[in-house]
Design brief:
Layout: H1 14-22, H2 24-28, E1 41-48, E2 54-61, E3 64-65, H3 67-76, H4 90-102, E4 109-113, H5 118-126, E5 142-146, H6 154-162, E6 166-170, E7 176-180, E8 185-188, H7 197-212
Parallel strand pairs: 1-4, 6-8
Antiparallel strand pairs: 1-2, 2-3, 4-5, 5-7, 6-7
Helix pairs in contact: 4-6
């Protein structure tokens, strides 16, 4: 049985989380909380296809990001192979919310992979599963999802059209879309994301920090 590890789970303050959402992710994922028609709260319905867990959570209100909600999502997104937990990036939740808003399906977002520890990512990479060695899964900034089983490509089409991060479609036995809030990119498996996107993100983050300093 996997036990939750309270140690090592860092959750940003509401102010810091907001800065994340409007800073780095603001340039890369362009969270739509800036829109004038933003509702007073944002709720996600998630269901893991691997663990069977379900989570309905209001992660943002007009007061900002809800720390307890971020904590719950971080646990939901844990690495099921190792039990490792990593704080979710608020910008990823904004992207999921916007994808959900723009899809026709009324289903919850079905998740297949959230956070991956470096060990799990390396294990998958060496199994030849089309895994990016610099995957944003290791940062709590990516998720593999599906929603409409009759049109599993819809999530990919919506994410690609939004252009607010990485979007990949994997027409495997259980088709799914990869979405992340790294530099914009799109691909169809067996194609791969653009090499070095993780380094590109780090350079952009460093530039933002320099400008804000």
């Amino acid at each position: 049985m996997i036990e939750k590890s309270a140690s090592g789970l860092f959750l940003p303050t509401r102010r810091k989380a907001l800065a994340l959402g409007l800073g780095v992710a603001g340039l890369l994922a362009a969270p739509s909380i800036l829109r004038a028609d933003t509702p007073h709260k944002r709720t996600l319905r998630l269901q893991s296809l691997n663990s069977g867990e379900k989570l309905t959570v209001t992660y943002w209100t007009d007061k900002g990001y809800e720390e307890d909600a971020l904590k719950r999502v971080s646990w939901f997104m844990r690495d099921l192979r190792t039990g490792g937990v990593h704080d979710v990036h608020p910008g990823l939740l904004d992207l999921l919310w916007e994808i959900d808003t723009n899809t026709r399906s009324k289903n919850p977002i079905y998740t297949m992979s959230g956070y991956r520890s470096p060990e799990t990512n390396d294990w998958l990479f060496h199994r030849g599963n089309g895994v990016d060695p610099g995957s944003f899964h290791m940062r709590g900034m990516a998720m593999d999802i599906t929603q409409d089983f009759l049109d599993p490509e819809e999530v990919y089409r919506v994410a690609k059209k939004l252009g607010k991060g990485g979007a990949g479609f994997y027409p495997t036995k259980t088709p799914y879309a990869h979405v992340d809030i790294g530099p914009p990119d799109s691909w169809l498996y067996p194609g791969m994301p653009r090499a070095g996107r993780d380094d590109e993100y780090d350079r952009m983050q460093e530039k933002i920090e320099q400008q804000s300093g």
